[in-house]
Amino acid sequence: MQITIFSFLSALLWSSLLIVAIYLLRHTRFKQHFGVLPMVLLYLFCAVRLFLPLEFSHTLIAADDVIYPYIYNLLTQKHIMLANKPLVLILCAVWLLGFCVLLFRFARQYRKAIRSVEHYAEPWDERTNTLLKQVQQQTRRTIKVQGYIATSVESAFGIGVIRKRIILPNKDYTEAELRYVLLHEYTHFLNHDTVVKLLVTLFCIIFWWNPVVYLLQKDLEQTLELKCDRAIAQTLNAQERTAYLRAILSAMKQGCTQQPVPQPSTALFRAEADKAMRERFTAVLACAEQPNGRTASAVLIGSFAVLLALSYAVLPQPAFEPPAEPDSSSTVYFNDENAYLKQSADGRYWLCIDGHKPYELTEGDVQFYLEHSVFKYIRETDQ
């Protein structure tokens, strides 16, 4: 098991194709036959495939004499314009620079958001804490969540992987609206969506140069929102689903900001396209009518699992011409019976073989022959 240039290129190609295929599938009329969770899993499988560009011992090598030899020569040959360095080394340096810059920016922004909450936001009032306890009783799962109210935000969101926080804007919510807002953000924590978003964010930082990973990030965020809305809708009756959607609409009417929400976080809504919001509303209203979809989801996951296995089974590589075997007729065999070492008056060393012209040797060659007892001594000559 190893990682090579060609195993990395293969992983890049396969994962990109699978991400595009899942994206197109999720935006077709067939999406209603598949659950939201399988889509999330498939996106994560694609991320794992790109993150593990491995070549196994049983991998079948497919020789290519058209494209891959050109790629190999382009990446490995030294270029004068690149300070006589191979292109692959320059690309690695550019990737490392971009990775460090983006990682530093992400860490600074995340730390800034946390410090802003800790220093400028105020804790919830007793009314909000009581509603959160009701939400915990409804979900029958209790996790520790800290709540704050901040005047600098216009949309509720959850943030934190270890220390979980729900940040509410300073808005006048009705009791029903506030309860559904808390239920939405609390469900995100129950689904570990902040963990998923953190991993995807780091994934995008590592592969910042690949535009397909941003397609994965954007669509996965929408898929996680659909998953959260669906999980909530399944616990509500038709009247409660309508009230849940009214709470989201009311929150949107009170203000939709264009300011970025700190990542990784789970916002009730963002300044997103109307199409994305319509998709969420449709998913909630049609929750009761949607088919179970377990069989279709199993077939979908199984098909992608087979493709994932096949992606490791075959690996294209450039076709190299094997080195020509030496001509046995030109091979000269010698030992201390038909050959000897000598040193000429000018200090040069020679290998003299019966029936052949003397071969000039380096001092290292002579030392090797003496150490391995090929010859016992060096003859001296005036020639």
Walkthrough of the structure:
- This protein has 383 residues and is an alpha/beta fold.
- It contains twelve helices and 13 strands.
- Among the domains are: 171 residues, no CATH class; 53 residues, no CATH class.
- The protein has a five-stranded mixed beta sheet, sandwiched between helices. It has a four-stranded mixed beta sheet with strand order 12-11-10-13. A two-stranded parallel ribbon has the order 1-9.
- A hairpin with a 5-residue loop joins β2 and β3.
- The mean pLDDT is 79.
State the end-to-end distance.
57 Å
Assign the structural class, choosing from mainly alpha, mainly beta, alpha/beta, alpha+beta, or little secondary structure. Answer: alpha/beta
Report the helical percentage.
40-55%
Strand order of the largest sheet: 4-5-7-6-8
Number of strands: 13
Q: Report the portion of residues in β strands.
A: 5-15%
Secondary-structure element sequence? HHEHEEHEHEEEHHHHEHHEEEEHE
Q: What is the C-alpha radius of gyration, as a whole number of Å?
A: 33 Å
> What overall geometry do the principal axes of the alpha carbons give?
elongated
| Helical stretch tally | 12
Low-confidence residue ranges: none
Biggest β-sheet: count, sense, barrel? Answer: 5 strands, mixed
Quick overview of this protein structure:
With 383 residues, the protein is α/β, with parallel strands linked by helices.
Descriptive terms for the model:
four-stranded mixed sheet; five-stranded mixed sheet
